[in-house]
Structures are given as C-alpha cells and as structure tokens.
Design goal:
The protein has 197 residues and is mostly helical. It has one domain (2-182): Growth Hormone, Chain: A. It has helices at 2-16, 22-30, 34-53, 55-59, 64-84, 88-116, 122-150, 153-174, 176-180. Helix 1 packs parallel to helix 7 and helix 1 (2-16) runs antiparallel to helix 8.
C-alpha cells in the first residue's frame, strides 16, 4: 500500500510534469508573451490554492488510495488537454484543474503514508517520500523537455499526460492493496513488523 502511494506519485510526476514545456508552448501558440507565460504558472498555483481549500473534504475520504489514483488520472488528462489546447482560456483551465488534482493527490498520499507507516519504518518511508517529491519532478521536466525537443512541445505534453493517466490504471490493477486501502480501518502499529492489512 505504501509502495503504491509512492509509485503513484512517481508515475504522475515522471510522466506528466509540464513546467519545462511552458516557454516553448507559450512561444509556439501565444507569441512568447511573458504575461501569458506567467499565467501558465499562476493557473497551476491557483489550482493548488483551490485544492488546498478542498483539503478538508478530501480528508474525509476513506478510500484514499482509490481517490489518489483518480486524482493522478485527472492530473494526466488535464495536462494532455493542456497540450492539445490552442486557445488561452482552455489552456489556463486545464492547468488550473491539474493544480487542483496535484494538491489533492499530495494530501491523500501524505495522509496514507503518515497513518499507514509503522513507527519502525517512519524514517525510511519519510526519506523515500522526500526523494520522490524532490527529485522525480525534475526528472519529469527533463523527460518532457527531451521529448519536446525530439518531437514537439504539444506532443510531449499530450503523450506524457495520457501516459500518466494510463499508468494510474496499471497501478490500480497491479497494486490492489492501494485501491482497497480504507483509512477508516487503519491503525498505526509501533512494532518492528508492518501491520497486516
């Protein structure tokens, strides 16, 4: 279950991180205006703020693993939409929705890890979570830029978003413990062995 929570984040950020593509897509579709480029980043941030405002209701979700996978799929599909959009308003809307999905996924993942990790493993799991959160998005931006330079920025965004959405389906099939995870029945153990679920 914990492995699945971390792997779901790797899937979303490695395959669909879009920020390296912003300057190229802005130049290709909107004339390279610095104002438009700023709106790209601001839209994701506004989505993050809205998602943070929804963290209370999200915290009451009991099937958190399933919800995290759904948020990851929405993130990927939103970024695929961003890659296909050629008008400014849809572009910004897709980025805003991606920001909401991203924050929701992070809240759910953090909750799963904090509640589900046995005390004996907290240090190791926290270190793994930090590495995933700090380094994988950078690798995702590298992937996006590399594919964008070989094909086109729009194709890179679409392909990455669709791959991330498909990846959540694969994770759901491969890691049923994550899908079945029910926060209402979870208890933290301080023993040296992981709790049986």
């Amino acid at each position: 279950m914990l492995y699945g929570a971390l792997l779901a984040d790797v899937n979303a950020t490695l395959l669909a991180m879009p920020f390296a593509l912003f300057p190229a897509i802005n130049a290709e579709r909107f004339g390279g205006s610095p104002r438009t480029l700023g709106l790209f980043t601001a839209s994701v941030a506004v989505g993050g703020i809205l998602g943070s405002g929804l963290s209370g209701p999200v915290g009451r979700v009991t099937r958190q693993g399933r919800a995290m996978l759904i948020a990851g799929a929405i993130w990927g599909l939103s970024l695929a939409g961003f890659g296909m959009a050629h008008a400014l308003v849809p572009t910004l809307v897709f980025l805003l929705v991606a920001g909401v999905a991203d924050v929701s996924s992070v809240v759910l993942r953090s909750t799963i890890i904090q509640v589900g990790t046995p005390d004996a493993y907290r240090g190791r799991i926290s270190a793994a979570e930090f590495v995933v959160g700090a380094s994988v998005p950078e690798l995702g931006n590298f992937r996006a830029g590399a594919i964008g330079s070989l094909t086109s920025p729009g194709f890179s965004a679409v392909a990455g978003g669709l791959a991330a959405a498909a990846g959540t389906a694969v994770l759901a099939l491969a890691l049923p413990a994550l899908v079945r995870y029910d926060a209402s029945s979870t208890s933290v153990t301080s023993s040296d062995q992981p709790a049986r679920r």
